[in-house]
Amino acid sequence: MTPSHGADALGALETGTAIRDGEIDPRELAEGALDAARGIGGVVGAFAHVLDDLTRDQARAVSDQLAEARRTGQLEELARRFPLLGVPMPIKDLTQVAGQPFEAGSATMAGNIASVTDGVAQKILDAGTLTIGKTSTPEFGMPCYTEPATGAPARTPWDVRRTAGGSSGGAAAAVASGIVPIAHGSDGGGSVRIPAACCGVVGIKPTRGLVSPGPYSSEGMGLATDGVLARSVRDVAAGLDLLAGPRPGDFFSGPSRSDSYREAAGRAPGPLRIAVLREPLAAETEVHPAALRGLERAIDLLHGLGHETTPIGAPFTPQEWSSFMPLWTVGAASIPLAPEQEDELLELTRWLRERGRSYSGVDLAGALQGVQSIARRTGEQFAPFDVVLTPTLSGPPAYPEDLQLADGAADFDAQCAFTPWTSTWNMIGNAAISVPLHREEIDGTELPFGVQLGATRPGQDALLLALAAQLEAQDPWPLVREPATA
What we know:
By secondary structure, the chain is an alpha/beta fold. It contains 18 helices and eleven strands. It is 39% helix and 13% strand. It has an eight-stranded mixed beta sheet, sandwiched between helices. A three-stranded mixed beta sheet has the order 1-3-2.
C-alpha cells in the first residue's frame, strides 16, 4: 500500500495504523509527501520551506523504531504512546525548529535559521511525526490572509484564485489538498479557524492555557495559542492530545483531563443548549446568504441530534470591540526589529506597528480592562448555554485583492468584515472549532463554508470535539480537494 494524495487520502490516525501494520513504509510516505509538497504544494502555496533532509532522517528513525518494536513485541505499546508515529505533520513558520529556516513570512527575517526548538514543535517532533516542511504564514502572522513577503501566497484548493485564509493558510492548504493529513497552526484572532473554513477542513483554537507557549515564548496578551488543523474531528483531537499540557512558569493554567481528547471525541454529548448568533461582532457587515444557509444546515442537524437551539443577540457592538485594537497593535509594535528594517515591512505590519506605538501604558491598561469587561459581559450572556453557534466567516473564501489593501487601516477593516466572529473567542479565552459543514456554488465554483462552535466556559474543548464529531458523522464533508482554477 502506498500513500495517496487523492480523494481517498488517509487521515492521520489511519495513516499511523497503516504504518504500524506494515501497509505503508514511512520512507516511501516521506518521499511521496515531499514530492506533493513541491507539486500540489506549489500550486496552493502551502509551504514556506520544504525540509527534505530532516524529513528523511525522521522517516529512517521511524523505520528503525518500528523494527525494534516488532522484534521485542512492543508494537502495541508503541501505538498507545505514539499514535501519530510516522505521520506527516508540518509546523507553521511562526514556530521555531532548531537548525531549520524561520522567516515568519517577513523580508526582515529572510535567511534566518532558528537556534532553538519551541516547546510545541518539540512535542510534535517527539511524537515521531514527519515534519515535511514549515507551512506558509503571512508577515508575523498578522492578517487573516496568507500573502507572505518571502514566498508564494497560500490559496484554497477549492479555487486557487481565492485565499486559503490566514495566518495558518499554508497549513490549511496542505491538509485540504491531501499533502498531509494533519498540521500545526496557531490562532490569535481566528488564524486556525479562518483558513480551516476557507479550505474546507477542521480547525481548533484550544482554551487559553491548555497549550503552553513555553519555554521560549510567553502568553503576552493571552490572545494567541497553538492549535491543530485536520480533515476529521478525530484527527484534530489526536493533535490536541499531542500539544496539550503545561510547562513551568506558565501564566495561564489550562484545564487537566484524565482521558484523551480522542476518546472524548468518540463520545456523544447529552442534549445541549446551543445559542445561535447570526449578528456580526467585530464589524457592521453583510453576511453572505450562503454562510447563513450553512448556519441553518447546522441548526437542522443539531435539532435532529436532539439539541436545543436559541437565537441570541450580539453581546457587544463593533465599537466596543475596538477595545481589542490596542492589544493587537501593541503586540505588533513589540516585535523586536531594528529601525532600518521598518522599510522592509509590508503595509499592514507597518500600520499596526505605528498604531501600537501611539498608545501609552495607560492606554494599554485601559484596553486590557476593556477586553476583560467585554469578556465578562459576553460570559454572562453565554452562561445559560453550552455552546454558541456562528458562521465562521461572513462569506466565501475571499479574493486576496479584497483583503490585502494598499491602506493599512482599510486592510484591517476589510479583515474584520470578513471575520466578524472569530476574534471573540480569543478575547474571552474559550475554545472554538470550525467545521466545514456546508458547500455551495458561488460564481460557478463550489466553495466551502464553515460553521463555528464556540465554548461558553473554559475547558470545554472535549465538549466541542464531541459535538463536532456528531455533526461529522451525521453529515460528512469531502476529505480532499484537488486544486481547482475555476
